[in-house]
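Action item from last meeting closed. Structure (372 res):
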């Protein structure tokens, strides 16, 4: 008996993870959630039929991150991913205004540019791009149209699965610690305005895939909310994302945003129970979308189809140039309109749209448009 006790003591001391509860167990999270309720006015319905997704981990952290320029090794991987060869980047670069760096690499019509702007010691944008040519410009529709069109993009010989396989291979070369997060159809438009196409879908000639970092077992999910902020953030800085665009000829463009250094991490000792998180969500969801209720009155509805634990980068209010990755709960879904016959028409159809983001530590609400 003493030997068994001693063995358990050793396991506890030297293998604490073997006995640790998962985060799902710690915060008592259900596998799924179904609920229907109305706003305080009774004029908007919130319908929740959602899977509750929690990574299989036992610890959460707050992680300091600092924006920076891309380095030569990262840019070299960017070119290798584009060509999927062992080509080496010419590391010569030109310094512009003492802060921006312009790289040029031309081989088979590849043009690579890396840039960053610094203001009072903080970065406002950090971007690296590798593109076939500058004769056209693209517009990405991240996952908005995937429920509206079946089959391949117009004029593209690749199916969605084939295009994603190409993008996955490139992403593994460029950013091996990133994982697939979202996809959408992509439009190409001539810069000289000579295009004569009349149907919107004819412009959607390819696919765009988004990859985001995985840290401490949790992926930093893509949401379009930050992209739509329009400079509302205290110090707007690109989120860490890798976009790979596939057209009929293969990889058309790779864009990499948000190079960052990972700093200190602080263990989250006591994340809030999911029950408390959901109490906040029930109270705030109707308030956060009051304008939808005002427009459609008694026909307004919110549909939540996924609830997921992930990291969100938050600006420090007292130090706008510094950021921390904080564990949050995102309530994904869309706004909707209830028709008179009882059916529901979805409005902003985007499976990556977060209707509400709640801090998993203290239950405060984070506005992704403002970055805190």
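Sequence:
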């Amino acid at each position: 008996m003493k030997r068994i006790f001693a063995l358990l003591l050793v396991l506890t001391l030297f293998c604490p993870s073997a006995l640790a509860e998962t985060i799902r167990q710690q915060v008592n999270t259900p596998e799924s959630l179904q609920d229907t309720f109305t706003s305080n006015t009774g004029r908007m319905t919130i319908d929740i039929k959602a899977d509750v997704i929690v990574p299989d981990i036992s610890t959460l952290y707050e992680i300091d991150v600092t924006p920076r320029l891309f380095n030569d090794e990262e840019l070299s991987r960017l070119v290798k991913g584009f060509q999927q060869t062992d080509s080496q980047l010419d590391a010569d670069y030109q310094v512009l205004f003492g802060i921006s760096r312009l790289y040029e690499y031309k081989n088979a019509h590849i043009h690579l540019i890396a840039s960053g702007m610094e203001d009072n010691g903080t970065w406002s944008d950090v971007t690296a791009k590798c593109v076939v040519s500058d004769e056209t410009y693209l517009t990405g529709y991240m996952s908005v149209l995937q429920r509206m069109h079946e089959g391949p993009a117009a004029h593209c010989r690749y199916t969605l699965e084939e295009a994603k396989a190409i993008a996955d291979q490139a992403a593994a070369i460029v950013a091996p610690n990133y994982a697939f997060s979202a996809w959408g159809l992509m439009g190409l438009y001539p810069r000289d305005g000579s295009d004569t196409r009349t149907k919107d879908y004819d412009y959607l000639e390819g696919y765009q895939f988004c990859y985001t970092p995985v840290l401490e077992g949790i992926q930093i999910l893509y949401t379009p909310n930050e992209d739509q902020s329009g400079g509302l953030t205290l110090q707007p800085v690109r989120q860490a994302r890798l976009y790979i665009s596939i057209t009929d000829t293969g990889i058309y463009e790779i864009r990499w945003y948000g190079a960052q250094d990972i700093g200190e991490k602080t263990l989250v000792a006591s994340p809030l129970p999911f029950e408390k998180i959901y109490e906040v969500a029930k109270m705030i969801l109707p308030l956060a979308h009051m304008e939808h209720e005002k427009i459609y009155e008694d026909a307004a509805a919110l549909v939540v189809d996924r609830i997921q634990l992930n990291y969100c980068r938050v600006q420090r209010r007292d130090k706008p140039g510094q950021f921390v990755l904080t564990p949050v709960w995102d309530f994904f879904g869309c706004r909707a309109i209830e028709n008179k016959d009882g059916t529901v028409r979805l409005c902003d159809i985007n499976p990556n749209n977060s209707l509400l983001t709640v801090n998993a530590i203290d239950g405060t609400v984070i506005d992704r448009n403002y970055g805190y």
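Note appended to the action item: The longest strand covers residues 319-338.
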